[in-house]
Amino acid sequence: MKSVGIFIVCVGLLCSCASSTQLSLYQKLDGKAGIGRIIDSFIYQIGNDEQIIHYFEHSNIAYFRQGFITHMCMLVEGPCTYDGDSMVAIHTGMHITEKDFNHVVDLLINAMNEQNISHSLQNDILSRMAPLRGEIIKM
């Protein structure tokens, strides 16, 4: 009987340990390396898209890449601090239409699909990015 009691206590402890070690979104994405792969796929999508490429024709792609990785890292609660320009400052004067904005979101989704990011994780990422929409369209 004492062995059964010890067994139940051990199972209870194991269950509580398992439930308290859930991975963060940052960890589920494989950290900064995983975010980098998503952004690299996204940049490739942009580079091959005639509708969107003109927005980036004068961009420093390496700077854009690093800034977006850091920004996404921060959004998914990774250990990064984004201290770059605000979304308003970056997008002012670009006159991004709602159609083009939605198309860029589609390209990001394509990039996440290419990197085998689950739809639930994609939805989590997109919901964290959604509040930025108003700071980007028609600035």
UniProtKB/TrEMBL annotation:
Supply the SUPFAM superfamilies for this chain.
Globin-like
| InterPro entries membership | Globin-like_sf (IPR009050), Globin/Proto (IPR012292), Hemoglobin_trunc (IPR001486)
UniProt keyword Heme present? yes
Checking CDD domains in the record gives:
TrHb1_N
Q: Does the keyword Oxidoreductase apply?
A: no
Q: Which Pfam families match?
A: Bac_globin (PF01152)
For this UniProt record, the keywords arranged alphabetically read as follows:
Heme, Iron, Metal-binding, Transport
Task: Quote the protein name from its UniProt record.
Answer: Group 1 truncated hemoglobin
Native species:
Pseudoalteromonas arctica
